[in-house]
Amino acid sequence: KQKKMLTYQQRAALCTHPVAKRLFTIMHEKRSNLAFSVDVTSATQLLQFADDIGPYICLLKTHVDILEDFSQDFVTRLQATAKKHNFLIFEDRKFADIGQTVLKQYISGLYRICDWAHIVNAHIVPGPGVIHGLSKVGVPKERGCLLIGQMSSQGSLATGEYTTAAVKMAEENSNFVMGFICQGSLTDDPRFIHMAPGVQLGGSGDQLGQQYNSPAQMVTEKRVDVIIVGRGILNAEDPVATAKLYQHAGFEAYENLSNN
Ligand code: 5BU
């Protein structure tokens, strides 16, 4: 069934979640549905990539626990870069413990993720307590959470009823949950944002179970809102030119949808 798509701008207006509203607004203003997964182990290199690629993305996705040289200074610089280029920061932490533990993992330790990451994500395997724990501090600080409804990797167990349960948990916790990590649209509610990793032009996967789709497949066929690209950009000969290519591919696929 082909139904008329709402634009990012229209969806921003419908959102009550502050982070979802902000992200849809950025996507509209920057004409970008591209998230860059900057999976490098050097903070200096990460900051350079963030500054170079920043103009073309709506979101920067990090794994700060792979950095060899994490510091408070890095956080300050990353926040400044996000402000300079108008993108949000998503720490791909994949919280997956009881509420009390994830709460501590979110606010304390070396990383203090809640202080700087606009968005985090969580597995739903522990049940809704994982969301309740994170939202205790996340909601007052106007942070957002994505639930992992599906994964891009081969043999993932996040399918069927598990995925359906993720949608239900999102609906019941929509003051904090703003959307999903998935491989296709999970709900027609326009306030939830769908983000898909496992995106590459001309690649089918890696040696460790990753599976890729093209930006057009993800956006036009599978109806996801944000494409998450890591090595497709990182390993390119010219990462900046390649980021522009992904930005255009992703946004063109979205515009084709809205015109239908
Ligand atoms: P790639 O280099 O584009 O394959 O990187 C994909 C990124 O998305 C990487 O940081 C993964 O940890 C992340 N990811 C994923 O690939 N698949 C998933 O289902 C989830 C996260 Br959830």
From TrEMBL:
Q: Name one GO biological process term.
A: 'de novo' UMP biosynthetic process
Q: Which GO terms describe its molecular function?
A: orotate phosphoribosyltransferase activity; orotidine-5'-phosphate decarboxylase activity
Which pathway does the protein contribute to?
Answer: Pyrimidine metabolism; UMP biosynthesis via de novo pathway; UMP from orotate: step 1/2; Pyrimidine metabolism; UMP biosynthesis via de novo pathway; UMP from orotate: step 2/2
Indicate whether Lyase appears among the record's keywords.
Answer: yes
User: How does the annotation summarize its subunit structure?
Assistant: Homodimer; dimerization is required for enzymatic activity.
Chain residues that bind substrate: 39, 61, 152, 210, 230-231
Per UniProt, the keywords (alphabetical) are:
Decarboxylase, Glycosyltransferase, Lyase, Multifunctional enzyme, Pyrimidine biosynthesis, Transferase
Enzyme Commission number(s): 2.4.2.10, 4.1.1.23
Q: Which reaction does it catalyse?
A: orotidine 5'-phosphate + diphosphate = orotate + 5-phospho-alpha-D-ribose 1-diphosphate; orotidine 5'-phosphate + H(+) = UMP + CO2
The role this protein plays is: Bifunctional enzyme catalyzing the last two steps of de novo pyrimidine biosynthesis, orotate phosphoribosyltransferase (OPRT), which converts orotate to orotidine-5'-monophosphate (OMP), and orotidine-5'-monophosphate decarboxylase (ODC), the terminal enzymatic reaction that decarboxylates OMP to uridine monophosphate (UMP).
List the catalytic residues.
92, 94, 97
What does the similarity note say? In the N-terminal section; belongs to the purine/pyrimidine phosphoribosyltransferase family.
Name of the protein in its database record: Uridine 5'-monophosphate synthase
Domain Orotidine 5'-phosphate decarboxylase span(s) in chain numbering: 33-246
